[in-house]
Amino acid sequence: MDAIRTMRGMEEFVTDEAALPSAPGEDEHPALALANSAVALPGGHRADLLGTPAQAEQWLARRDLAPADAGLAEVCATQLRSLREQVRSLLASRVAGQPALPAAVTAVNDAMTRVPTASLLLWDEKTGPYRATPHPTTAIVEHALAVIAADAADLLTAPAAAARLTACASPPCNRFLLKHGRRQWCSTRCGDRARAARAYARRTATD
Ligand SMILES: [Zn+2]
């Protein structure tokens, strides 16, 4: 593994996806996973799972959004990171109950409609008619962006998901999650840090 590890005090921060467990809801919603692919960590650190084209390729392949050998270029990783910022902006607006930035709405709609996603009628000379979604290799990233954008639209509008959408309540974490019950943080690590911060605040208040 080419995980980049940074030692800081007793804690170790890792930019490897395996060491950054996915937040609740990410497995069902690639848009949530995309939004959470850049994480603010304690100590002013930041982990970006789409930092390089190779990382972006791995990230897409792990979600079956691209073949493992897609050969992504920097421009593709940039497109993904750009959609990430727009999706993050929309999720933040939704959580805050604020109007969305029109540019973010446009970006999601553009990503959804840039490539054909309809399953077309095709006719094989030997085997006859069948349906398939055209998926040119030149448009691998555009296809992935379309799938993620459509999922973002679902996530924002489906009542069951939208009602559970929240931001992790453990600063400086900036991830989003779909709440189960009262849990307000994206990971055990964030929950532990929030509890430790509360205990520290109680101690200093009584001292
Ligand atoms: Zn968190």
CATH topology: Jann2411-like fold
Structural domains: how many? 1
| Main sheet: strand order | 1-2
Q: What amount of the residues lies in strands?
A: 15-25%
Average pLDDT value?
87
Which percent bin holds the helix content?
40-55%
Can you give a write-up of this model?
This protein is α+β, with helices and mostly antiparallel strands and 207 residues long. It has a single domain, classed as Jann2411-like fold. 44% of the residues lie in helices and 15% in strands. The protein contains seven helices and eight strands. The chain has helices at 30-35, 53-62, 74-96, 102-113, 140-157, 159-162, 188-206; strands at 5-8, 11-14, 38-41, 45-48, 120-124, 128-132, 165-167, 176-178. Strands 1-2 form a two-stranded antiparallel ribbon. Helix 4 packs across helix 5 (140-157). The longest helix is centred in the middle third of the chain and has 23 residues, at 74-96. It starts with a strand and ends with a helix. Residues 168, 170, 173, 175, 185-187, 190 line the site of zinc ion (ZN).
